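hi got a favour to ask and not much time before my train. below you get a single protein, a line of residues and a line of whole numbers that encode the local backbone shape. could you go over both lines and see whether the tokens make sense for that sequence. a few lines back from you is plenty, here it is:
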Amino acid sequence: MAEGSSSIGRAPVSKTGGWGFKSLLPCSTQLVSFERGKRVNRQTKRMLQRQGALGPDGTPISGAGAERVRRQPGAAQRGTGGAPARASLPERSIEYLREVRGELQKVAWPGRTEVANYTVVVFITVVLLTALVFGLDYAFAKGVIYLFRK
């Protein structure tokens, strides 16, 4: 059994009031065996099965038996655990734009008054900082000229 731990513990939460130290153990302690003594957790096993490196029973696929279980490049296996065939560039582009549109619809856009208020704040800040930099530049320039004339 593999043991995992962290050198840093979790900070106490206000509801628990610091009820001791809890080490950060790995998410899954239930391990499955993999080729040549390597061991992987459930999540990695599932990923390897989707990629075709493991059979449905969890045994590694290698050599002559690999061709019978691994998916062919053109064959889509939706619902069977295999990855679908890669779509064409226009289809992927359209899908990407649909996803972008969906994500942009989730954004909490500011209202007109909020944008106007932020614009005024930015404008005033820019004017004040410009005046500050101008004033410091002018003062240092006069100071340097004074020092060299002496």
